[in-house]
């Protein structure tokens, strides 16, 4: 599927709403994950936010024009709300019941946000004008402390996964995991024990947890970015067992 992802605002003087958190922070952070996860699942992503000092009108027109020129299947605009409310809402043209929009809304609500429903977005340029089916997602309210607290506690990874699953019906890959070592060797031959300080020197800057069963002891790390997991894999050598998610 070819999907246009519109990271709302972020052009010229149009930086979006600011409250407890900046709307632009949510858009850029969640949006980057959504784009990456869609690509990982094999979808073609057209990023339509323009670059340059454009007026709001020029910026909106450029987004739609780029999507239309690429003949996308879906146009998805990412935003966060303001005005003192709570919850998540998705705008479609005339509040049409678009399956992908409903799935995105249901998935985000399932994380704990209040369901504000599918709303009429016929007055919104990026909902009204694209040739493809379009939706605008308002993740949460940037000026409501409870919404921001929930956003922070849930985390951008889970929110991005909810959006990607709603758009595609596929389960997005997590970009984090933890490293599991093999059973650790004794400190030296004839000594029934493990040099913990030496072992932990392989995990600088990461929490490491000792695990054991009747066969021996091993280490599992905290959740880490996959890039860090792969670095540890190379560092550990034959001590490495697996990366789990």
TrEMBL record:
The entry's keywords: Hydrolase
Name of the protein: Sporulation-specific N-acetylmuramoyl-L-alanine amidase
Stored SMART domains: Ami_3
EC number(s) per entry: 3.5.1.28
Domain MurNAc-LAA: 64-168
UniProt cross-references to Gene3D superfamilies, sorted A to Z: Zn-dependent exopeptidases
UniProt GO MF annotations: N-acetylmuramoyl-L-alanine amidase activity
GO biological-process terms attached to the record: peptidoglycan catabolic process
SUPFAM superfamilies on file: Zn-dependent exopeptidases
Organism: Clostridium beijerinckii (Clostridium MP)
